[in-house]
Amino acid sequence: MAKDEDETEMLNTYFTNGAEVEISSDEEGFRGAWYEGTVIRPIPKKQRRNNNDGDESSKNKLRVLVEYKTLMADKKGKKPLKETMSLVQLRPRPPPERRRRFKVSEEVDANYNDGWWEGVVMEVLDGGRYSVFFRGTRDQLEFDESQIRIHREWANGEWTPPFDEGEEEDKEENNEDLEFKHADIRLHLDWINGKWVRASQALKL
């Protein structure tokens, strides 16, 4: 019962209708990646019980209908793919973070093949580019700084590492007086109605 209550709270907090999310898939060729999408609506338990797929365990789990942002259901690429997912396959879309420099051996996500794939920085190149190695496919590809982000895990409503850890590490390594610039300050954001919004906007809601 407690687990059902936890899932319901998670659904009502992070996966309401219209919430911007990232979606993982167990299908071959898509495993290990997170794809951007939007929650359309939850699937009522009554509707799932009427499904004759024979999987009783899946019928007891909360599931939601989602629409992908980058994956399409047709060859022309005009009809976004829609799928029914369990909550363990979803997470909120990470809030935007300031651009930063990455280091060799740092775990990152790279925007590749329509999704975010986990990799490791192997080499820092000129011009703000990085060589990233993907363990799953054994590929090593180059990406612009804007195409990669720190790899984070989301569990129990929290991100690991938290979103302020990178900034704190930068401060300690510099070990010098900091002169803050407008570009170095990350806006305070609140999660409201399935989206990250500025604090000033939140006051108006």
UniProtKB/TrEMBL annotation:
Annotated Agenet domain residues: 13-98, 100-156
Coiled-coil ranges (or none): none
Record InterPro entries: Agenet-like_dom, Agenet_dom_plant
SMART domains noted in UniProt: Agenet
Descriptive protein name: Agenet domain-containing protein
